[in-house]
C-alpha cells in the first residue's frame, strides 16, 4: 500500500502545482504561474518511472495521472493564456481559452483507451503535457513575444493534440540522460526568468527541484550497481 502511495504522491504534487498555477495567474503573477506548470512537468515525468521502479503500477495511478494532467497542463495553461492574451476579449476570450482543456481532455481519453495497442516509440498527437509546457514557456517570455504568435501557437496546439500526427516518444531514453536534460533545461529557464524579473518564486519550487535531482542521483547510483553486478 505504501509503495503505491509514493508515485501517487508525485501525481498529486503535479495536480497541486496546477491548482496553485491557476491561483497565481488570477493574482497577476503570471511568471510564477508558468513556473508551477513547469514544475508539474517535472513531477509528471517522475510518477510513472517511480511506479515502475517500485513495481507499484496501478489503474488508480493511471487514472489519477490523467486527471492531474487535465488540470496542470490543460486548465492552468488555459487560464494563463486567457489572462495574458485573451482577457481583452471578455467572454469570447473565456470561450476560446476553454478549448485548450477540452481538446486536451479528449486527447488524454483517446490515449488511455489505446495505450495497450499503441507503440511506445511515438505518441499520436501532441501530448497535453508538452502542449501545456509550451504555453507556459511562451508566457514566461511573453513580453518579448507578440500576442499573435501566442494565439497562433495556442490554436495550433489545440488541433495538434487531437490530430493523428506521430510525435516521437522519449520513453526509450535511459532515465539519467532524460532526467538530466529536463533538469538542466528547466533550471536554465527558471534562472533566466529570475534574472530578468527578480520575482519571488513559490516555495514549492525549492521542494520540487531538490527532490527531482535526488531522484535522478538515486537512479544513476542504482544503474551503476546493476552494471557492476553484470
UniProtKB/TrEMBL annotation:
Any Pfam family hit: CDP-OH_P_transf
InterPro entries (UniProt xref): CDP-alcohol_PTase-I, CDP-diaglyc--ser_O-PTrfase, CDP-OH_P_trans, CDP-OH_PTrfase_TM_dom, CDP_ALCOHOL_P_TRANSF_CS
Membrane topology annotation: Multi-pass membrane protein
TM stretches of this protein: 91-110, 122-141, 147-163, 175-194, 200-218
Any one cellular-component term (Gene Ontology): membrane
PROSITE patterns assigned to the protein according to its UniProt record, in alphabetical order: CDP_ALCOHOL_P_TRANSF
Family matches, as Gene3D superfamilies: 1.20.120.1760
One biological process term in Gene Ontology: phospholipid biosynthetic process
MF (Gene Ontology): CDP-diacylglycerol-serine O-phosphatidyltransferase activity
Alphabetized UniProt keyword annotations: Lipid biosynthesis, Lipid metabolism, Membrane, Phospholipid biosynthesis, Phospholipid metabolism, Transferase, Transmembrane, Transmembrane helix
UniProt catalytic activity: a CDP-1,2-diacyl-sn-glycerol + L-serine = a 1,2-diacyl-sn-glycero-3-phospho-L-serine + CMP + H(+)
Subcellular localization, as worded in the UniProt entry: Endomembrane system
The family this protein is said to belong to: Belongs to the CDP-alcohol phosphatidyltransferase class-I family.
Protein name: CDP-diacylglycerol--serine O-phosphatidyltransferase
This protein's encoding gene: pssA
